[in-house]
Amino acid sequence: MNATAPITQDVLTIPRKLPEGAKRNIVGLTRPQLHAALVEIGTPDRQAKMRVGQVWQWIYHWGVRDFAQMTNLAKDYRAKLAEHFEVTIPEVVNRQISEDGTRKYLVRIAGGHEVETVYIPEEGRGTLCVSSQVGCTLTCSFCHTGTQKLVRNLTAGEIVGQLMLARDDLGEWPVMGAPKDEQRLVSNIVLMGMGEPLYNFDNVRDAMKVVMDGEGLSLSRRRITLSTSGVVPEIAKTAEEIGCLLAVSFHATTDEVRDKLVPINKKWNIKALLDALRDYPKLSNSERITFEYVMLKDVNDTDADAKRLVKLIQGIPAKINLIPFNEWPGSAYQRSDWERIEKFADIIYHAGYASPIRKPRGEDIMAACGQLKSATERERKSRAQIAAETGA
Ligand code: SAH
Ligand code: SF4
Question: Considering 143, 234, 369, 377, which one is annotated as catalytic?
């Protein structure tokens, strides 16, 4: 497959049509989809809107998965729902907790595939890093996920399910009658896990619609950041149809270097990308774009790079997030020295941009940015490596 070829939805997403007798999962359906599904099982049209609201609150506000517990619905209606639907989320098959408190979940989805989800607790907030694909079609040379072939897109339910399973694990569902807890454990979402979210646009959009809905999980669009490697045609759509914050994996200041680091650049180069980004804040009514920049020793970390970077982004409301490179077994790069990173940050800061250096989190459990890859895939690779080493 061409490394930068767009992926069509129908090839990779689980088919909508269910096998005979199978129940439809409600998790991940948007309100209109749930409405249609309830009408389909015989809910009178005039009641459907109210039933959607009731079921929605049980599932996404209270975290209830069993229809029998949805006590404001008539008993026979609950039975009918249970006959046709289920409320399921992906299974956590392994959980690792880093010494810094970061939690990494290995999550099994339909078909036996696996993705990783990472929870990062911080002072006064907590961020969940969510995956959108199993593997990735792109092959950014510094990224571990990029060494794993794309297996498939996640469904909207599997994307929403990652937030629900984290809330399960953290015990974050509200308790009826208890005072409202203002401090949320998962207060932010970043679509920065495995995969390129804009190559799975429809499912990511639907999932975020569910996550942003004020009667349920209720995370505002300003607490969601989608990171893209630069799928230019989908950027305006992201502003219009999701409206979340945008981060872009920039990583280089010349096309020559970016072609090597982020190969999608061969399709949409720096100029095309910047043109699309210029319109984003206005279209999405958000303040600024985050430019992610991975610091690779002797590759993209000179003073000249820093100066070129500020010149390139001139006129775009931005902050530049410097990411010290996180190593993974077999990676070809090294992290820039600390003084180099600080000097680079200084140049950007003096040009008038915020230039935070991202603190690597969960490195001891391979949960830091760009280290994700499903455990079975990782094992397969290491077995292959062992075989090569021993000549077996
Ligand atoms: N596919 C999307 C989102 C996932 S990657 C994208 O590429 O934007 C989230 C961020 O981590 C991206 O900026 C990515 O370039 C960066 N990253 C990937 N591998 C990394 C590594 N080994 N060390 C540090 N950052 C890395
Ligand atoms: Fe895919 Fe993003 Fe990794 Fe590139 S950096 S290979 S787009 S997950």
Answer: 369
200 lines ligand 1 (CB under 6 A): no
Residue 186 three-state SS: coil
Ligand 2 pocket, 90 CB below 6 A?
no
In angstroms, rounded to a whole number, what is the distance separating the alpha carbons of residues 346 and 340?
10
Nearest of 220, 273, 266 to residue 248 by alpha carbon: 273
* Cross-strand bridge partners of residue 319: 290, 354
Rounded to two decimals, the pTM is: 0.91
> Which pLDDT tens digit goes with each residue over 171-187?
999 988 877 767 899 99
140 is known as an active-site residue: no
Residue 280's pLDDT is 87
Report whether 292 contacts 300 (CB < 8 A).
Answer: no
User: Alpha-carbon distance 382 to 169, whole Å?
Assistant: 30
Distance CA 295, CA 339 (A): 12
Over range 375-382, report the average pLDDT. 57
Active site residue 158: no
Phi, psi of 149, deg, nearest 5? -60, 155
Domains, the chain, ranges and CATH?
22-86 (1.10.150.530), 91-390 (3.20.20.70)
280-306 pLDDT, tens digit per residue, is: 877 777 779 999 999 999 999 999 999
pLDDT greater than 90 at residue 147: no
